[in-house]
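Lab manual, section 2.4: Encoding a predicted structure.

Procedure: take the sequence of the chain (546 residues), apply the prediction step described in section 2.3, and record the output as structure tokens. A sample record is shown.
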Amino acid sequence: MTTSRTLPVLSLALALLLAAGAALATPPQYLIVDIGVIAPTDFAQGNRVSLTGIATGRSFGNPTRAFSWTVDGGLVALPNPTSPARNYCVGNGVNDLGAVVGNGTTTSFGSSPLPLLWQGGAVSVLALPGGQTLGRANDINNDGLVVGSIGSGSVEYGVKWSGGVPTVITAQTPGGSWLRTAYSVNDAGQVVGFGIDPANAARNVGILYDAVANTAAEVPALPGHNGTLPFDISNSGYVVGSSMLNQGSGMPFIWSAANGTKEITLPPATSQGSCRGVNNAGWAVGTAGGVYAVPFLYDGEQTYALADLLPPGSGWDLATNTSSSAMGISEDGIIVGSGVLNGSVRAYALIPDQGVAALLQVFAAEAGDAGVDVRWALALPGGDLRVDLERAPAADGPWTVIASRVDAEALATTFRDPDAEPGRVWHYRLRVTERSGATYTLGELAVERPVLWAGGPQLGAPWPNPARDGAQVAFRLPAAQGVTVQVHDVRGHLVRSLVDGSFGGGEHVAGWDGTAADGLRAPAGVYFVTLKTATAVRTQRLVLAR
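Recorded output:
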């Protein structure tokens, strides 16, 4: 795995709070990661990424193999089936548990496709309905519901697999249209895909199918259009794809039940396009067309060409070729697609430079007879960063470096400070320095030695999650102390303060009714619940669906 630059550190849990709700910089910036290839002569394509950042696609060669990829674990080659043999395989969808679905074919151009499931390192061929010999699997949700199609051409039908058992989707819209191919499924069992209108075969019909209620409806087109091709649906109900007149050139759109169908502005020098992935916050990615293929990001307000968001000298071309794409986006804003790296088509992952991922997940201190144990956990490896732990006798300093690059490659690190004088309050913070020299201060806490913390403050996972109208979160304090519990959005803005005061040791519960500080309902999307005391910060992620 190679990166074009080091990762600047910004923590929603700490840095953004200390900056008093500083907004995400515009335009956003990213580092770009080469996902890699299985064989040295292969080229690679990135096709989708789960909400938690697991990517899939294919390493194209002979044989062609599907893969999974994560920031922490890198590229993992997935096996091809041997009975029946399929030497050309691709991963089309992946869930948060790492299960991948896709197709296996006998040729590089897709002959004799079979639907495949990779789980626990093994591959299996999904069953086909009686009389069927062809099929494709396009997506899988966290309940294991797989969607795709069977057959081909004019006899292709949408299908779902529940517990490995296939069922042809026969539900029709009120106008009589039905599903040919299912592209995406969310955790509520909502499915989107391409359908056919028996009264107008020239019209592309976007279908929204409810696998629980077994009902179907059309995804509305943009004004002046009569059809859509929807490719992805988020757990919060956002649908993205392309809208067009009949089967003409399309324009990217985003739809929700609350806001209807909205056109996404194209990046410069393009005339058509399609969205391919969307997350629960309504951030969407896709590819626009003109002379070249231009991958883009839509942040709910503005559209950016991905090539404009890369640092100089990355070596990647996402602007002047016809092979580039943006196919999926995770909850933390990781974008997956394909581009050209030094003349070769490769799969990439774009990792947000700031504001989306809470890089510093834990920062805590526990004092004892042997010293003060300072513990932190990063959401991403920090191997390209210099990490300094600093100590001071007061909040305003003077600060002294007491440890440098302690297990910088590890996600979680503990350092024991035996020199902190007992009976005094000591302050600790992290200083993180990029290779470029840019420096960030993360976290600041105070601890008196000796103090026995019995495990320190704890913040439980919000429940329910995803939530529709509100959620509860439990927290535990080892002793009486001041505590705040707050809700922030993905840009670090304070949405609601839930707790701010002194509490006794033991278990407590904070509730959020899903409204912002102004009393209005908070929009669907990803939020971060943060507990903060004088000695610790804890963060949990909450998805609000409407």
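Check your result against the sample. Residues 1-25, 354-358 have pLDDT under 50 and may be disordered.
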